[in-house]
Specification:
The protein is 32% helix and 23% strand. The chain is an alpha+beta fold and 347 residues long.
Amino acid sequence: MLENKNQGRTSLSKLGEFGLIDHLTKHFTLQHFTSVKGVGDDAAVVGSSDKQTLITTDLLVEGVHFDLSYMPLKHLGYKAVMVNLSDVYAMNAEAEQITVSVAVSNRFSLEALEELYSGIQLACSNYKVDLIGGDTSSSNKGILISITAIGKAKEEDVVYRDGAKPTDLIVVSGDLGGAYLGLQVLEREKQVFEVNPQNQPDLDNYSYIIERQLKPEARRDIPRLLMELKVKPTSMIDISDGLSSEIFHICTQSRVGCKIYEDKLPLDPQVISACEEFDIDSTMVALSGGEDYELLFTISINDFDKIKGNPNLTVIGHVTEKDQGLNLVTRANQEIALKAQGWNSFN
């Protein structure tokens, strides 16, 4: 769980800001004709016709969003890109470019940043996005990563959070709660390691949920799937802060209520077994866990037959009139008010 301290170190001061940028980005190649000018000038030039440009930014701070005692730098770079691409896909758009800005303290060597950027490069390669710029700076403490993602979509294809209507179905991709349970496993193993550094963790039984935490995958496939099925969501958002928080965003901006059914929440078997081990309620984990980076969206009830039985999608509820509120229907068929208890970095 500790980095090898015997690796050769190269001081970042030897390269300087522009030398560092050149060194870290020399292996990136542009993959889109819209990437007119990438890294190497005062600003990137991005051009296209008949499409809207979407831009989103996320900030990841050491000690707030991640813990390097169990987050490998390569995984961190990959995840930082996923966090941003997920927001683009949640607009029913295609991501094409990113910019990356990093601030690091003097405890990080060139080799450490190479590991970080190798994860960023892998994400760019897997998701066909171009790195077109960014910035580097020093930090008094730890590491800070800011990534901006740029996407494109036709005007008529863009989906916002405010289009949900009563009787719409509420749909989620994938399964929920895995990232939160993965974090619980990693935090437990960290505490064990701090007590006894000779104790090596056995994580074979937690491979899926740990991967959901350390190396999530943005759901690029869902907008494409919906287009193939000829289904346009009426509203959509990605699940970064927890299902309950995200459905609150949709309902608030759409001025509607909702009913979510407890027995419809998609849970992986490893999530269920980990909940039993940690004595945590699986419904609470699904509603408030966060960092799953699945897509939550609403569709017209008339489109139900188009998505019915699709293994990537689960209908978990429906939209109601605003005055009915936001409610969870339990397995005992009781209605209780939903609470937005997801991730808040300022808590």
